[in-house]
């Protein structure tokens, strides 16, 4: 065999080897171990991978990655949800609330804090979940209120299971009727997001529904007959029900109860409050290292571990921002000359223990123009 021919074979073999290594490396960077395509992202370097991308200001680096690659991007082999401003409570909603309360303060009117705060939280969550400042005519709030009301009713079937098929009180029928209404609304929302009609021109960013639809019917394990897809349509509707039922009500209830305590104790009262025969001292956590995020079992308002609340961080930010804004901009007092200790603090049994009656207060604008 001539030397020239051998050299050509060696050259071809070397080129094929390099091409195979290059193609395999690129494929592995863009696909996971099961062969599924990963989101786009910057190229990784050997050993350090994507550490160099984060630089000195990681939050700004993530912002630039979001502008270049979109909401989902890949660093190393990890899929990240890059944070964006619309995932946090919009300051426009807070400004609108402050302006509306300011007008009431100038007119000397009494403000329905329960209604105003509930509307604010509904707007924020509608923007995050559906991509719109309002629920776009879906009329979710009455359905949520009705569902919460039905769940807090005394149902004798819960205590005597043999009576459940009879549904003596009709609670089961009403819950099924409400469930069907939710299903109709969520089907319409999913269809509009799938087809891009009506909503496309009204929202500046992708929302939570868009993110779930992007994973809809994506194969997870073709050999698993019970769960062949990552998420299915019924899963999307179930998650939407959890998101709306939990988020539209609980944060608003917490804010209203906090304001109730502020109105009831306008000045620092040194006398101890007794609950159940013991002194109630919530300030005992001030200055301590106890974390409310589930790491310390002395205080677990959001649960812990796998059963912890997924909206914990959003709830903390929302409650603090709304309370701080309203307390900073206004002085508050009970309406009609009511004394602080005369404030009605009765509650309704339910999932979030809301007030029995709406909280009314009279604001006075305290900031300089």
TrEMBL record:
It is found in: Membrane. Keywords: Heme, Iron, Membrane, Metal-binding, Monooxygenase, Oxidoreductase, Transmembrane, Transmembrane helix. It comes from the Eukaryota. Its main location: membrane. Heme binds at residue 309. The keyword DNA damage does not apply. GO terms for cellular component: membrane. Gene3D superfamilies: Cytochrome P450. GO terms for molecular function: heme binding; iron ion binding; monooxygenase activity; oxidoreductase activity, acting on paired donors, with incorporation or reduction of molecular oxygen. SUPFAM superfamilies: Cytochrome P450 (SSF48264). The chain crosses the membrane at residues 6-27. Its cofactor is heme. It holds the Pfam family p450. Belongs to the cytochrome P450 family. PANTHER family: CYTOCHROME P450, CYTOCHROME P450 93A3-LIKE. This is Cytochrome P450 superfamily protein, putative isoform 2. It comes from Hibiscus syriacus (Rose of Sharon). The lineage of its organism: Eukaryota, Viridiplantae, Streptophyta, Embryophyta, Tracheophyta.
